[in-house]
């Protein structure tokens, strides 16, 4: 059985001093982790975090990547640049990027391609809004979002990580119940199975108010292969409890 993956998404939080303190606490506490661990950090801190986690159990992740390869795209960061800093994972299509930066399914799919081409594992985020859930559109929305990435990446789809993050559960303290999450994860697994013979290898993470108290139940579901953790990833004891609940 594959190891679960617990990835922290720091979002736009941190400072040199705060990162150092958080990472030292994580490094001290995570030595016996049974799962894979990553932190997805703001781009300016990649060098700092790369150095801090070198040779440890913690892998380095970024939060976004340009859909372009190189050139006149002011402010953008390319996959090759991320690779230069030892980045192993990169979030693509986080709902905050889709919502505040208008990222489309097609752009997200291209970003996943760019990451894969640079040897970086994209963590493809999908999820429905509250209105979509209430309108009974959850399945249709997440399948559409994942289909774009499957279509653009062909057989390489077994190399991605998928994160199911219901938008209504992000930063709200409302978690999808283990049953609700498992239901959607099973839909995503089935969709992956139709695209690759290696769908069982794909990590499907749950994200949205995952915390020390609810992690064990979520992580016990058959199709939940880890977590993508926001707020609780900024507090070492909370993140370490989630890591301890994973296998
Ligand atoms: P919270 O854990 O703060 O709800 O954030 C989830 C998330 O968006 C992780 O990418």
A few lines on this structure:
The chain has 247 residues and is an alpha/beta fold. It has ten helices and eight strands.
Comma- or semicolon-separated keywords:
247 residues; alpha/beta; TIM Barrel; eight-stranded parallel beta barrel; 15% strand; binds 1,3-dihydroxyacetonephosphate
Q: Give the CA-CA distance, first to last residue.
A: 10 Å
Walk across the major sheet and give the strand order.
1-2-3-4-5-6-7-8
Work out the radius of gyration.
17 Å
The main β sheet shows up as:
8 strands, parallel, barrel
Low-confidence stretches: none
Structural class: alpha/beta
CATH architecture annotation name: Alpha-Beta Barrel
Q: What's the β-strand tally?
A: 8
Give a structural overview.
With 247 residues, this protein is α/β, with parallel strands linked by helices. It has a single domain (5-245), classed as Aldolase class I (TIM Barrel). It is built from ten helices and eight strands. The chain has an eight-stranded parallel β-barrel with strand order 1-2-3-4-5-6-7-8, surrounded by five helices. Helix 1 (16-29) packs parallel to helix 2, helix 1 (16-29) runs parallel beside helix 10 (236-245) and helix 5 packs across helix 7. The protein starts with a strand and ends with a helix.
Lay out the secondary structure:
Layout: E1 5-9, H1 16-29, E2 36-41, H2 46-53, E3 58-62, H3 79-84, E4 89-92, H4 95-100, H5 105-117, E5 121-126, H6 130-134, H7 138-153, E6 161-164, H8 178-195, E7 204-207, H9 215-219, E8 226-229, H10 236-245
Parallel strand pairs: 1-2, 1-8, 2-3, 3-4, 4-5, 5-6, 6-7, 7-8
Helix pairs in contact: 1-2, 1-10, 5-7, 7-8
The structure holds 1,3-dihydroxyacetonephosphate.
1,3-dihydroxyacetonephosphate binds next to strand 8.
């Amino acid at each position: 059985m594959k190891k679960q993956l617990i990835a922290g998404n720091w979002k736009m939080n941190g400072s040199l001093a705060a990162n150092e303190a958080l990472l030292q606490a994580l490094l001290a506490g995570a030595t016996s982790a049974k799962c894979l661990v990553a932190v997805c950090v703001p781009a300016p801190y990649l060098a700092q975090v790369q150095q801090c986690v070198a040779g440890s159990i913690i892998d380095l992740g970024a939060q976004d990547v340009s859909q372009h390869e190189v050139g006149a795209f002011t402010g953008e960061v390319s996959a090759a640049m991320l690779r230069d800093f030892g980045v192993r994972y990169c979030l693509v299509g986080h709902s905050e990027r889709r919502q505040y930066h208008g990222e489309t399914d097609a752009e997200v799919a291209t970003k996943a391609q760019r990451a894969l081409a640079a040897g970086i594992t994209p963590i493809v985020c999908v999820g429905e809004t509250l209105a979509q859930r209430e309108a009974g559109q959850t399945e249709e929305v997440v399948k559409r979002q994942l289909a774009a990435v499957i279509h653009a990446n062909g057989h390489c789809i077994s190399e991605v990580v998928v994160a199911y993050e219901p938008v209504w559960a992000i930063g709200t303290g409302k978690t999808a119940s283990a049953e609700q999450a498992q239901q959607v994860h099973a839909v995503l697994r089935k969709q992956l199975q139709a695209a690759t013979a290696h769908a069982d290898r794909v990590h499907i993470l749950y994200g949205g108010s995952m915390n020390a108290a609810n992690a064990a139940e979520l992580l016990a579901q058959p199709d939940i292969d880890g977590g993508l953790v926001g707020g609780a990833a900024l507090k070492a004891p909370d993140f370490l409890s989630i890591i301890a609940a994973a296998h």
